[in-house]
Write a structure and sequence with these properties.
Blueprint: H1 14-17, H2 24-30, E1 34-38, H3 41-45, H4 52-60, E2 63-65, H5 72-75, E3 76-78, E4 81-82, H6 85-91, H7 100-103, E5 107-115, H8 123-127, H9 134-151, E6 158-163, H10 181-186, H11 189-201, E7 206-211, H12 219-233, E8 240-243, E9 246-248, H13 258-267, E10 272-285, E11 288-289, H14 294-312, E12 318-321, H15 331-334, E13 339-340, H16 353-363, E14 369-375, E15 382-385, E16 394-397, E17 408-412, E18 418-422, E19 428-433, E20 441-446, E21 455-461, E22 464-469, E23 475-480, E24 484-489, E25 498-502
Parallel strand pairs: 1-2, 1-12, 2-5, 5-6, 6-7, 7-8, 8-10, 9-10, 10-12
Antiparallel strand pairs: 3-4, 10-11, 10-13, 14-17, 14-25, 15-16, 17-18, 19-20, 21-22, 22-25, 23-24
Helix pairs in contact: 9-11, 14-16
Length: 503
Amino acid sequence: MIRTCLFFFLATINVIHTQNSIGLRALATLRGLTLGSEAPVAYLRGDADMGQYISMLKQNIDLIIPASAFMPTHTWMNENQYNFTDTDWLVGSTPNTTGWIQQNRMLVKAHALIWGKDYRVPTWLLEQEASITPAKALSLLSDFIHTIAGRYRGKIYWWNVINEAISDYNQTTAFNLENSFWYRKLGADYIKYAFIFAREADPNVKLFYNEYSIEHGGYKADNTLALLKWLKSEGVSVDGLGMQWHISTTEVITPGDAHYQIAQQFIDLNLLVAITELDVGMKTNGAYPADPNDFIKQAQIYRSMFQYALHFYPNISSVATWGFTDRYSFVSTSSNYTRGNALTLDCQYQPKPAFWEVQEELGRVLADGLYKISPISQPDHCLGTTSNNTNSTLQLYADSCKNTNEQWNVTWQKDGTYRFSPQNTIESALNAYNASITIGQVGTTQWTGDTNQEWVITPKGNDTFRLGPRNAWWRVLTVYNASIIAIVDDRQSDLQYWTLTMI
């Protein structure tokens, strides 16, 4: 169902919408981040919006959270009866079969094995609750987790083993847990057993606890911390904590503040932390923002979230939003249409200011200016052109690097890429020819704005960078055989890293 969402655009950003972005997936991958999104299987199977949904998803996302597909209310029909229709289609029904995820070279986060709330417990279990003993409940828990997690062993990137178990209100339960079916039968031990059974079913998968309203600290975060400390003390295998981050444009995230402090507390427990359900809603009047300035506030918050993730990297290496387009965001309906427009793409799949801010945070790692470029394998050499013609080959020069053919204008293109133009022929640009072949050619040609003239820069520390052509961003500019400049596969070699020094 299409939700009520934004059809109003800021006039000042209409031009930007026409730009052909490289996509957030590539930029995030090169920074070591995994970008995720909730995506219902029905939209994937149904080729939603004539393929536009899948096209934009694949351009910007590499981790799929298939909404309710793995939930017990969707898969567990009765004690010995399961519905694997959607999950089999997604990842394959047997170890040797593939599903949509593998065929599209993506990852899947399975959400979630057990919920802490009764409304996500299968109805048949609740109806039989009076006759189910604790021993029977434990047997049922084991059977379910071993069945579903075991069926997809080796195919799941991570499981949310327990989701939203801690109450928003004061309880008399351990760790202020929800007084749900599983707690009533097994106490807090149900959480421990769920992780134990999940690890037995799939020894190598990442196992997470997922919770909301803990990102800024407070009593709920304190209870979550206590719960995870207890699990660790019991020897339970827990890999990480998922923080949901359903927030609004009133949120302020500043380095060193409470958001950073609480994340560090979980990291100090030797846990990975993941941002799992991010959205940034704004107040709305129907489909329209109550304050148009909220687009800018939203953009700043999204950017600050990626600054937060990069600050903690690699302890935080995954950022997932709950959906990626306002067209299918739950924020409007869940707030009775008082909030909305919470994601980075609008209802027409057009980037909003938030998208461009995230792109710039991930991709703009170097200030515009004039640079000398040296391979770290030969720091006394500079990359330069061999002639003053627009079309030129490249070589390394062992001189002062003061000649204009050895100096490069580096310019951000606002689409996630950079242009490199030699100072001696400013109208030309670094160009990757045949970038996908084993040893791809590279030189300069007249600037036309083609994708083979656009470059993605990835920081490697100490003013050292990886340079990849947009048309093959997963490959790198390389000193091949000590002297030839070429595009080859990324082997993380010193021959493939460059020092860029502003002149």
